[in-house]
Amino acid sequence: MSDEFETYLRRELGRTAQRAPKAPPSFPAEVVALSNRRRTARTALMTGVCVTAIALPAGLIATGGGDVVTGTISTTVTPSVPPRNHTGDEYRIGEVVEIDNPSQKRPIHLWYARTDDGTVLCERVIDRTGFRTERCGGPLGDEEATQQGSTETFPAPATGQVMYFGTARDKVARVTALTGEGKVTGTLHRPEGAPQGIWTVTVPSDKTVTVFEFAGPGGETVTRIEPQRRGAYPEAQAKPVGPTLDMPGKLVVGLYETPGKTLIWKRNGQAVGRTHAITSGGPLTDLGGKPMNVELRDHKEHWFGITGTETARVELVFKDGTTVKAETRRNPWKIDGFRLFAGTQRHSEDLYRDGFRIVGYDADGAELWHEDHG
After folding, report:
1. Which one, of 333, 322, 180, 340, lies nearest residue 251 by Cα?
2. In the chain, is it the N or the C terminus that has fewer CB atoms within a 10 Å radius of its CB?
3. What is the pTM of this model?
4. How far is residue 166's CA from residue 198's CA, in Å, rounded to a whole number?
């Protein structure tokens, strides 16, 4: 399971929790955020997939009453005793580095924290919808530099940029990413009071990084590390189940088993979005089984998604009153519970930054629902 899919699950479960009644005091207040950055963490994750009926990592729980999912990566998972959350200020060492996330055009924060097992690098990521996730990596060793993560996703970010980041000791004065077409120089951050530096490097999402080089003040090589390989996204290799459907804006949507039922939206053969169509009759529901009106995705000027079967038309209404419309269509896979829609808009380069209302109407033009965003 990829880091990006884990993030998707945390985000969807977090939104579900916001709709749900407040959890009782005994409900765990922390999330076990598993990562495949360490082989042991990956093993724990796969164990969770095997024993959990809906293929969620063991202990992955969204907390109610907020939009923050937090956790600490651990090599062992004890469901009855959640790991301590080390993302709080009481564990922080030194300043927090705020960086513009080139994949989301939103802030990403990186900082060091002290845990019982050693020093870790923590991250706080805010996505375009405003949802926030926090987590910490595994304990650092004596390496001169490490890679701790990236903003890589499936589908690739609409911005066409991916940022890699990690740790660097004092010997490191420069970081460079090598791709098949040349070198990309990164940036070193030295937060005050931190035990090590933090490096970042941004490369085009369609370029493959073969190695990261770390050099000293005189240009001498301090260390070289290969990028962490997440493995192939199952969606990238999957074949559509049944027919695909042509949608407005030259989009094509198909149903894929990945292993759950997932809609993958493509344009010119390239994936631009995905929607988890897990309904099995009845009202449209999210991953937590809670009713919802719409699941919206967007990629550049394209906006698309699914809505309930009673919705015949969907509209985006911008703050200045500008409106764009999309008619809904029956899905061709004989799955009850949702219809599809797609449209284009050139009014906003960033829907969630500028703000919008999405509205659903029935066949007679009566409003069924609306949601405000941004």
Report:
1. 340
2. C
3. 0.74
4. 6
